[in-house]
What does this fold into?
Amino acid sequence: MPGTHLGRPAAYFAENFLLPLTTLRERQTMKWQFYAPDILPAWVAEMDYALAPAISDVLVWWGQRQEAGYPYRQRDRAEFALARAFSRYTRRAFDWETDPADVLAVNELVQATFLAIMAFSEPGDGVLIQTPCYPPFYEAVRDTGRRLQTSALVDDGDRFSIDFEHLERQVDPGTRILILCNPHNPTGRAFRRDELERLADFAEAHDLLVIADEIHADLVYPGQRHIPFASLRPGLAPRTVTLNSASKSFNIPGLRCGVMHFGTAELKTRFTRRQPARSLGYPSAIGIDATVAAWDSGGDWLEGARHYLADRRAQTLTTLRARLPQARMYSPEATYFAWIDLSALALPEPAGSWCLRHAGLALNAGETFIAKGEPRVRLNFATSQAVLGQALDRLANAWHASNSPVLSAAAPGPSHGE
Ligand SMILES: Cc1ncc(COP(=O)(O)O)c(C=O)c1O
It folds into this structure.
């Protein structure tokens, strides 16, 4: 059994939770199953690590018990145990006091985004999204018959930042909701307090409900801090629905469990009047147990993962700088995504499909996050040093091969040797 990190979190993580490529290739998950075996996947938001011991213990417990009745924990329904664990987690991680009574359990956060849009707006109402954005946000607006309004984060030369003048131009009297993704997928921004304060002023001035998707809140790198939007100032809570789960930070999206936190009891009542709580169903008890275990007892694993990921972030930056300096990216402040601009390569086709075809590397295509943006890809660096090295090599080699007549004759495609 792995012990604790004893002040060496990245080494502890590397010693205990890395998996060989052969094992990863056997994973029955979207990341590893979607593409053919000669493709190296560095796309969808799954991490290539073994589970936190606290979560493995839950799965073992479930395997051993001969029971699967309606789940009760501490003489109470399991979803209340989840809500109480959420409150312990927000207090400990963000110094944010939350009332378990203001929490509803959901299966997943995309579901929660749809539900919040449907409960707090009418068909035809405007929903404002900051682009580039997590693709299901587009679906959530489109499929609920709401009106999509977008405002792009701008590259200010140092980072992606919020263009407040543009936001003001986009909003109109029919805008009801702002979806805030913080930390931001795909740019990796962890918005600073002053940025969130201005966004809060904006939401208040236009009387917007804010859906704050904070699923990446735990994956913030040293030197940055995640500030829950609802915790910024007391006046914001009544207009903020916060979505969170352990599914990204502990890599358990398959266990289907998350929470919606309503800033006030009134806001929750407004929601349940439109969307009765029982109509949501409940997450599975295994998902609840795993999430409670992650929040209560996953600290060492998470600390290790954060440090190990910080090293992979550095590896990505250093390798690209050395081997493909035309690729531009900012060092993400949070998340395990590199949002890479490949404009300087002047590729003959969209960057994602070029990488797939010429590098044998599956990345997320930039155009799924923002239409008409520059040619970009999102690379998921939550893997081992060795696999990340192979991914970056594939990218750089493909580019150099495609640019050198001699090399391209000698190197017909990606290496299949893993
Ligand atoms: C911003 C954001 N929200 C939601 C999700 C998905 O959450 P779930 O699997 O709980 O629907 C992701 C997954 O990567 C994400 O990046």
